Amino acid sequence: MLDEVRPVYTIGTAAELLRVHPRTLRLYEDGGLIRPFRKNNRRFYSSHDLQWISSVRYLLHEKGLNQEGLRRLLALIPCWEGKRCTPEARASCPAWQDRSTPCWDLARRGQIAASRCYECEIYLSAMDHVLDPREREDALSYIMAD
């Protein structure tokens, strides 16, 4: 059994499983909403990523959020609490200073030193922060209903 966070799906396979165009996945990444693993400039997605992308699509298409609103909502997830940062570390942290952008998007932009966001507990717990259990079920079934 493969680990849920192990990136095994190419962008084409992930798009097919999610019933979206690969460009949609690129747009979500460019918008800072997802952070797939990259190797040799190729994107790979895990089972967790597929669940998160389903949640993103549900929030955008069913709950009426736009990408900027979702990005700002995700930025409210306190990564410094999950990582148990000291007050000194927080003071110099771009994620603490810029609370309008999720920490994994700051990492993608090179503002935070982090290369394995796809394994980060903050990234992995984003669904739990923005969806209640019923909405998670709805989000996962949303893609299947298309």
Structure description:
- The chain has 146 residues and is mainly α.
- It is built from eleven helices and three strands.
- It has helices spanning 11-18, 22-30, 47-61, 67-75, 79-82, 87-91, 94-97, 103-108, 121-124, 126-130, 133-145; strands spanning 9-10, 37-39, 42-45.
- A three-stranded antiparallel β-sheet has the order 1-3-2.
- A hairpin with a 2-residue loop joins strand 2 (37-39) and strand 3.
- Helix 3 (47-61) packs across helix 11 (133-145).
- The protein is globular.
- The mean pLDDT is 86.
On the 0 to 100 scale, the average pLDDT is 86
- Distance N to C terminus: 27 Å
Strand proportion, as a percent range, falls in 5-15%
Strand order of the largest sheet: 1-3-2
Structural class: mainly alpha
Q: Give the helix tally.
A: 11
**Poorly predicted regions:** none
Radius of gyration over all CA atoms, rounded: 15 Å
Give the % helix. Answer: 55-70%
Order of helices and strands: EHHEEHHHHHHHHH
Give the overall shape. Answer: globular
Main pleated-sheet profile: 3 strands, antiparallel
The count of strands amounts to: 3
